Structures are given as C-alpha cells and as structure tokens.
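can u pls check wat happens w/ zinc ion
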Amino acid sequence: MVRGSSWRDHLDRAWFSRPGVRTREAVAAAAGLLTPSWCVGCGAEETDLCEECAYDVRLLTRDPYRAEAAAPALPVVGQTEDQLRVLPVIAAGTYGTLLSRVMLGFKDHERIPLDRVLAPALGRAVEAALSQLCTEAPLILVPATSLKARMRRSHDPVPHLVRRMEGRSALRGAQLAEGMLAQPPRAAAVGMLPGGGRQKGQKGRSLADRRRRLTGAFRVTDRGREELPGREVLLVDDVLTTGATIHALYELLTEAGAEVRGAAVMAAAEVPRGGDASQGSGLE
Ligand SMILES: [Zn+2]
C-alpha cells in the first residue's frame, strides 16, 4: 500500500495524530486498560489476574465457612443451653491471603474485570448463607457505599458483585434491595464508614463506642420503613473484622421490623490474638 491518500494511511494518521491518541487513551482508560496490567497476585504481565492465581482464588473461596467466632462485636441473637448464640456470618475466604489483594485491586484500583472471580466467590458465601440461615427468599442488603467510591462516582464494589450474581439460581429468588439504608451526609463526611474497621483511628476505640458511632452512621430510609417489616434479611459485605458494622446494622434493621438472619462476606479477617486494642472491651 503506497498510495498516500489511501484510507489506510488516513487511518494511520488519524490513529497516531494527537487527537487520535487522546481518544484512544480515553477509550482505554474507560475500559480500564490504561492501568499497567499485571497480575495482582504474582505480578505476571499482560493480565490483571493470571490463570494460576485465578485458580488459587477459586481454591481459597471454594468452601465458605462460619466466621462469626472470630468477630467479638457481633450481636447476640439467642442462647442455646449455656452458650450465647451470635449472629451467624458466612465467609467465602480469609482476608490476608491472595483474596485480599484481588479485592483491593477490584475495590481501590477499579480493576473491574476481577469481578469474574470475585462474584462467584461471594456468590458461594451468599448461597451457603441462604441455604443455611434463611427460610424464604430474603432481601439482600449491602451495608453502604464506600465514601471513596461515592466521591469518584465510580462503581460500588459489593452491590456490583451482587448484581453480577442476580439471575443465578443459587440466589434462590433473593434480591438485592437498594435504597433502604442511607448514610446521613454528616456521618459520611467525617468518615464514619463501615467496612470492618480498616479506617485509621478506629483501632483504639472500644467496640461499644465504635458501634454507637456506626449506628449513627446509618439510617433506614422511608422505603426501608415500608418494605422491611416482616421481611427476612441477609446482610452482604466485603470484609468481616470485629463485626461492629454488622451489629449496628442488625440493630437498625431489627428496630425497623426486619428479621436479620445473618451475613455473608467475601472475607473474614483473622483476629490477631491480643494485638488489637479494641478487643477485651468487656462487650462479650
Ligand atoms: Zn498470577
């Protein structure tokens, strides 16, 4: 092809012209392709998650397990013989593994395609929670939008993952209920956000204190007041640490008339023994 006026040359020139480059950059950025691409697990190039690491994530989340024992701030919901029963939580995997890196890549670095492994992983936890904890198709409630995501007007990680599960038979007719919980702007503004205690400054506070602050960080909307009474609810969140967020939500939703059956989370943090000042507050 030597003719200077051929469409190919035009295309070439357009492709490498400055507006062309800008357009491609914009398109690539929108598609998440501009981020240098390497496996969040092992650093292999040209992929956000290599086959081996994707396989490992599946292994790490293959058997959802009951995680409430490691979360000292979960609400007590009953008593069996001489033991207190706390709200059950089912986790797909453990935080602090490859799973956390994939979650961070998805949440904080907006590597949306990672939802291909995360949605099935969370789906397994939700499926287990539905079959073990719920008797009818419950409402699935997701605690809150992260402030960061809201400020960037970008995707909201957990609802995004639940939406990807919708339509799967594993969901047993459960539906993602949105618009039933809100955060008063003031609470969001001062960063009193849920998310399992990963924010700085929360560590030294007692669990009871944290929970009081967290309760103030949410409110049930008018729609929630209408639809929640008498409904079964399953909470879904990304990480379980102390359980203070879930406790706060449990109280709010129960007060609104919902029957909170439990929670499903992507990952449960393993509580460091004796290393966390928020433990041993006497709340247990
Ligand atoms: Zn890898």
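Residues 189-202, 274-284 have pLDDT under 50 and may be disordered.
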